Structure formats: C-alpha cells, structure tokens
Amino acid sequence: GPFFDSTQQSSFHSIRISCLDHPNVLTGTEVIPGAVSRQWVEERIMDWCHPTNNPNERSFQWKGKWYDPLPVFEARVLGRPPVEAEDQLIPLHWATMAQRPLAESYSGERVLGLDIARHGAAASAMVYRVGDHVILVKKQRGNDITTTADWLLAEIKENEADVAYADEGGLGGGVVDICIRAGAPIQAVNVQRVAMQKTRFANLYHEMWWTVREKLRTGEMTLPYDDDLVADLTSINYTHDHLGRIIVEDKEQRVKRLGRSPDAGDALAMSY
Questions:
Q1: Is the pLDDT of residue 120 over 60?
Q2: pLDDT, tens digit (0-9, with 9 covering 90-100), for 235-255
Q3: What is the Cα–Cα distance from 4 to 8, expressed in whole angstroms?
Q4: CB 176 within 8 A of CB 153
Q5: CB-count exposure of residue 93 (10 Å: 0-12, 13-18, 19+)
Q6: Contact 114, 125 (CB under 8 A)
Q7: CA atoms within 13 A of residue 217's CA, in its CB half-sphere
Q8: 70/11 Cα distance (integer angstroms)
Q9: CA-CA distances (angstroms) from residue 34 to 29, 40, 101, 105, 227?
Q10: Do residues 149 and 179 make contact, with C-beta atoms less than 8 angstroms apart?
Q11: Residue 232 and residue 52: Cα distance in Å, rounded?
Q12: Looking at residue 162, what DSSP letter applies?
C-alpha cells in the first residue's frame, strides 16, 4: 500500500524502530511506562519464530541464538515489511486486511470449530463465527476429555450455536460422544475423508484450509484483532501432489518446523 511504497522511495527518509532495540527490551525494565516489554518480545519469539542453524538475511539473533521470524513477527516486532514465500497459504496482508470492526448488524449461521489437543500440555482451541465473521477465539490447556466436552457444551449454549464441528480422531472422539449424548448440535469430522472436490484436494483437511484461504483472499472473512490467530493463519505452506491436487502442510510438519502447533488456525479451518 501507500505506506510501504513511501518507504521504498528516495524522496522519503525511513526510520525503522525494532522492538528488539527498545530501551525497555534492552534493559529488561520499564524505562518508558506502557511501552513494549522484554517479556512480551520473548513470548512473541516463542510463538512467532523458530530457531535456525542456517540464518539468512531475514533471520535475527536473540540471546546468542538465531531465529527465523514468521511474517507477523517481522511486521509487528521487527518493524519491517515481511517477505512472503511463494508456497505460503495465506499472505499476511490478507489476514491483516480482514482485521476490521464488524458492521452494527451481521447475520449468518452460528458455528463453533474445536481443535482438540492431543496431549495434556497442549492447548485445545475454539473459534466462534457468525457467517464469515470470526467473533472470538478461546483456548484451554491441560483438560481431560470430560472437561473439554463440558467447555464445548457451555460455549454451544452461551453462543446459541447452530452447529459445532470437532475432529473425531484421537481424543476428539470421546468429546464428540459426550456432546452427542447431551443432545448438542455437534458434527464429528474426519479430516482424512475424501474431499467434496476430490479432484482438487487430496482430502477434507486440505479443502477446509483452502476454504479459509479463499474467504480471506476475497475479503469475505472478518477477523478479530488477534495477532496469535493471524500468526497461525500465515504460518502454513502448501504444495501439490502428483495428481495436481492441493496439499496443505499437515499439523505434524508444522509442529516440527515451527516448534508449536497453530491450534487456533486449525479450529477456524474446522469450523468450515
């Protein structure tokens, strides 16, 4: 946009201020009250970057270690325009453009998507949307099956959801069973099943994520001001298989590459 264009013109003098150079971050104390803190930066490094032994011109160093930043870290923390890869599923500017206030009146199907943690230390993530407007993102950590099911049932009731979608694989099967017995409007999803457009997508998982991508590309989707969700959405790559079908990077690959699981992004994809 115009701001970026101005930074590339010789008639402008551009000054970039990285959070890493801020006095609060350098000293670890609140030199400037209310400004960025070292703790905030370190949390963003954990969530929005991954360590690397092969640094490049986009990498940065923190406490003697090199990191590769996600696009949202480059923009929000380093203060520079991110370079986005050709195989990036969702460019940062699509996601940030979707972060806008909702109209006074909006309508649509009320949907919950739940990504259920596979391990006790991981977080289960829930996304609630009305039509293509994402209203809220919530996470809970360390819950057992019963507690997760109770949480989902409470959110279905509070938001008067028309339907909730949850992965029936792994621990999800138990959560789905409890909610079905309670009479909740829940739909079990097997993401490995054949896609509706089976000649275009290898399975339903890839089709769900591509739906989110297209909603953002066309400007149909509205996102809350949640940079963790934006980081999840912009951290995923895609390719094509030997049949030319779209293949979205699976969760195991992402966890290995990023060192974390983009749970909120998976919950949004699950809602479709």
A1: no
A2: 899 999 988 899 999 888 888
A3: 7
A4: no
A5: middle
A6: yes
A7: 9
A8: 30
A9: 11, 12, 24, 34, 19
A10: yes
A11: 19
A12: S
